Amino acid sequence: xxxxxxxxxxxxxxxxxxxxxxxxxxxxxxxxxxxxxxxxxxxxxxxxxxxxxxxxxxxxxxxxxxxxxxxxxxxxxxxxxxxxxxxxxxxxxxxxxxxxxxxxxxxxxxxxxxxxxxxxxxxxxxxxxxxxxxxxxxxxxxxxxxxxxxxxxxxxxxxxxxxxxxxxxxxxxxxxxxxxxxxxxxxxxxxxxxxxxxxxxxxxxxxxxxxxxxxxxxxxxxxxxxxxxxxxxxxxxxxxxxxxxxxxxxxxxxxxxxxxxxxxxxxxxxxxxxxxxxxxxxxxxxxxxxxxxxxxxxxxxxxxxxxxxxxxxxxxxxxxxxxxxxxxxxxxxxxxxxxxxxxxxxxxxxxxxxxxxxxxxxxxxxxxxxxxxxxxxxxxxxxxxxxxxxxxxxxxxxxxxxxxxxxxxxxxxxxxxxxxxxxxxxxxxxxxxxxxxxxxxxxxxxxxxxxxxxxxxxxxxxxxxxxxxxxxxxxxx
Length: 477
Hints:
Number of strands: 16
Helix content: 25-40%
CATH superfamily of the largest domain: Antithrombin, subunit I, domain 2
Strand order of the largest sheet: 1-16-15-9-8-7
């Protein structure tokens, strides 16, 4: 075939609709995203052909202009925002999520199930008493601090704590703490998002903890241990500085000097999470909207917007939800919108995390979600006692394995912080147990969810199903 024929065929090909829809494999990386062509991507596609096809670069220039115009037209017509990638993400694609071994997941499952059952009971009970105030807790943090404390209990006190923590009666102490230890090991292995879990044992120089108890907590829970003079204000400062450090300054303190002075030992857990959305919300799409308050009032809040999130829609009895995964982490947030007239805590009381993990069809989701920050703190003593942990708070509580003299739980303190914006989520929690002595296809239907009334949130590890954080949001701030 002669030069004239080759040029003619090339010209026809490059100007044809077939080429406009074709993306040559292997010639570009990250320059053309799943939503359409970018200017940089076109240049990358054109570059490899430059030397071989100098005689048809005129046609290539026409193609570049046509594709850019087509991209602009599609964006203007359909308004489907592309995933937002920063320069670092383009040069260094995020790693694949860590895959846990099946045997580790099976070992961790009893603890993960207990975390969820206990955590949701605590949240729903606290929310029911909150008079439509925001409640945000970390089931993982609460459970971890208390299960370490349970490891120092015996007799009726241990039985009461196990029941409160939703631990099956047929699960042995060895299997319980082995399961909890494996769960923390798996969660700490997260790579895409930052998830840090820390534990510490603080004891008064006058009332030392049992060396056996300390050794078990160090082995199973990687707990730090320190002896302080609880009578001095510096002891509270030391504990609070640990909290501040482990939560990346999100929670500056957990105990006051008076609480430390009255305690004989303090067991602390801190959880810190920071993750970027897999599909970020375009900041230009965030606009003020009206949020309906539970008392009938209204409030103006910034509503983030993404018009085409794939495989995010969920639904169940009395609710709709959005599943929002974090980049390369295996962790997702579930934003749960109850049907009108239903409270978020009642929906959480009967919700199935396993059901939330299963997409409800392949619908694209048009989502509006408030951008907000909240701080929450509470004593857990009353809700824990309501769930059956009363004996642990009595001076007759049996914590012989902790050491001598007799210990009992004086209070359990919990603080959390949550930040949700267009790029992702930051969440932190601290729990302190103060122990006292004594081609053309029809488009699928697009679902629309606008979180403009009270809703619930869950942050879950997908492989174990463990709930890291959970909350009911009555008033975004």
